[in-house]
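Notes from hallway chat w/ T.B., transcribed later so I don't forget. T.B. wanted the structure written out for a chain they're using in a teaching module, and asked if we could keep both sequence and structure tokens in one place. Agreed to drop them here.
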Amino acid sequence: MPESLNFIDLFAGASGMSEGFVKEGFTPISHIEMNKEACETIRTRAAYHFLKSENYLEPYYKYLKGKITRDKLFKDLPPEIITSTLNIEIDDKSIKPLFQEIKKSKKDIDLIIGGPPCQAYSLLGRHQEDIEKDPRNKLYIQYGRFLKEFQPKAFVFENVPGMLSANKGQHFKNLKTYFKKLGYEVHHETLDASNYGVVQARKRIIIVGWKKELDFGFPEFEKTDLKFTVNDAFSDLKELTPGEAHFVSKYTKKKNSYLEQFELRNGVDFVTQHISRSHNSRDLEIYRRAIEKWNNNNERLKYPDLPEELKTHKNESSFTDRYKVVNGNGVSHTVVAHIAKDGHYYIHPDIEQCRSISVREAARLQSFPDDFYFEGSRSAAFKQIGNAVPPLMANAIAKKMKEILNG
């Protein structure tokens, strides 16, 4: 058996990308993330992976069910499960201490994964000059400093398609030039998560860099013919009314082909965080109209079409599609972090439920397995999910990277 490949996950978020690599047998040496709740989520998941490797998941399941405390869960686990996740912002001041912390592992780093926060490249409501001034645009330089320090064989860098057009393409050109100067050949493509088992149309730029002497070009990640829909992903979850919360609940149906093939329902007989938002009567009436329009005519509700008594503002020329139903009979539109603010853009397709989607439903749209637990409040969980790399897409990348690196 080849030795396990070690990686660092930068700007790790809730570790969706890492999840795909760990499933493929890669070993995380360190996760670095500035959001506190996301770091707690990473640590909880690290506890899961350790206990799974020991074939002793009972304490983890007890924690999910609220039967033991977090302290009790971690009490007998190796300390590096906590210490390897570094809750810190990567900047000029923190970077050298971060290097020293990672070097304590005394492990070679084969791969670096992760992508800096992508909101800076979002095309939504941003002027080009704002994009150019945003300090997050330069975070690829910090990423490069890790490459220079640890000299991994390869890296996988993920971001939104808007990165290609930022500053009329100059930004991406600078990024490629910089990585090349560090000794890496850089290749990129735009991937859609729906080609890898994710019931969501989610396009992302994937940049793969190789040490010059190892240049394998852009790998061909194996695609999956997706025959499944959002309704398949939601099929066994309890029906909820607005504001209803099931922190732990039983499934209502047997596992279907989608949940089995892609291992979303992976061995547990209960599901957590099936939690929905409350909505006022006006929003519920708008949701009802939006669902009817979508389900009956395949048409999106436009804000100007609402009767005056349901309108809350005078702007009828921009964001006219702010109420959007998730397509139950196909793949969802892209789940983004804004889902933490309100649910208008992610209305459940079932008119009987007439609400926005729950935390667990959002996690399923992102292909997180059901035993993946998000720490923090409901809003914190939504934000982590919206920002994440779908684990199934990450796993497709990991499979090919493993094959090449172990070649």
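Follow-up for T.B.: Strands lie at 6-10, 27-33, 85-87, 111-114, 154-159, 184-192, 203-211, 245-250, 270-275. Might be a good example for the class.
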